[in-house]
Amino acid sequence: MRLLVCISKTPDTTSKIRFDADSKNFIEEGVQFILNPYDEWYSLVRAIEIRESIGGQVDVIHVGNTSSDILIRKALAIGADAAFRIEDEASNSTSVAYQIAEFVKSHPYDIVFVGKETIDHNGSEVGSKLAAFLNLPFVSFCNHLEITNNIAVCSMEIDGGNEIIELNIPFVLSAAKGLAEQRIPNMKGIIDAKKKPLNVIAKVNVENHSELVRFETPAAKSGVRMIDPDKLDEMVDIFKNELKII
Amino acid sequence: MVLVLLEHKDGEIKKSSKEAASFAADLAMSTGEKAVGLIAGGATNSNELGALGIEEIFEFEAADYLDSQQWTQVIEQAYQKLQPTFIVLSNNSLGKSIGGRIAVRLNKGLISNVIQFKSEESKPIFRKSVYSGKAFAWYAFQSNEGIISVMPHGYGVFPNKNKQVTASKIDISIPSGNVKLKERNLLKGKTPLTEADIVVSAGRGLKDPSNWKMIEELADLLNAATACSRPVADAGWRPHYEHVGQTGIAIRPNVYIAIGISGAIQHLAGVNNSKNIVVINKDPEAPFFKAADYGICGDLFEIIPKLNEALRRAK
Which residue of A128, A226, A236 is in closest CB contact with B98? Predict the structure, then answer.
């Protein structure tokens, strides 16, 4: 089975979020970048598990510049077989999805994995756009995946529950918590990763239909109002008269 | 024309769709257009939709389950017939699975997870939450048209308009699907966490799953949904679908009450868009107090039963 895992880089959750003077650009200085957790912990690991159980090849693909190579090597150390990097800034979801789709059209895969969202833009857009460019079914927010004889049975998170669906390969899937358990690369994996291929691909341009006007940081909270634990009637009064929930 | 997709469950329009309808009506008003709804047949409630500001409804016939490609076909055909400027969806689980696909198929922009819009330099710009609630971004379409998905609980439902609704059928032919639904499991009798107005959430401070009784009692008294932090879900004390935070569900209720949760940044990422945050923790240094509107510092095992008692008295 041929499996492709799309991996993106995001600022670590604990990073300070700052923007430049015209509020158009995120300040990367001093920020620690990581592999997007949904891509690394769930997509990649489930793809590796499938290869381990039924055989095949797991490739990873990333849109970014050479500064991402260290993160791509980490994905190889966790267990991917080969990596592809499209030499372009990951500037918007249309461009990322289009460029990956162009790659997949010339290198067909049975399942293309994305994370359910990146933890920076939280857009959840690349997966459905990629599926559209490839004209393939899309399994969103997948938290369980089994494959037998090229037929997949998946559980998808929906509002207030889940749906169990069945479909044939090929398809695009976005990974949610529950799909797999995080794996930490071991020493052998890290050494092997250095020898695995990391191919660089030229970028392809595509028109984007929306543009960032500016970023904004939220106004600081005015401060917490503390309530005496011995005077809980005050909390009840707040529920009733300020928050109006009882 | 601003077209909004309305989903219903057993004939009741979903709350997330009512919110999208309110957004669509307000957007239409600001651009001098008309808000119209697209709904699967049989679920039109004219009074309700008129109050939300919808002027015209188009009903299509469809099976109970449509996959993301079939849903996209519905929107695509409605677009061809009606030629709306903007298409509004909820950014709920359906919106997330079809928003990008619709944008690609119609060759238009998508601005997702929107919480607000305003007019700037005579065109609408849209505000969305980014960086897990730590920042916002304003986006605009290159042209004056596109697809907008509205964050659940991000905008609000405003049934204060008084439009006359006309309903008509729209002919949409839905191709056969590629996905077979085998099972749909919904939590019975419970409000989905993403739709709940009030959420009572607890963490490791509870020490043992058997202590959740008082949390459930508080939730019942407030008519709230229950949630939990990651360590608690990982330990199997509470079901995974209750886990809110970075890797769990992101929510934006009116009131979020956090009990025995320290407020690690990964947890805050899923809840810091809540409109009001109440934190109950015994550690005065717990980072959650910095993100809170109201705080009670003390032993939760004493506070919660007393609070429940006070709530019962107040009812």
Answer: A128
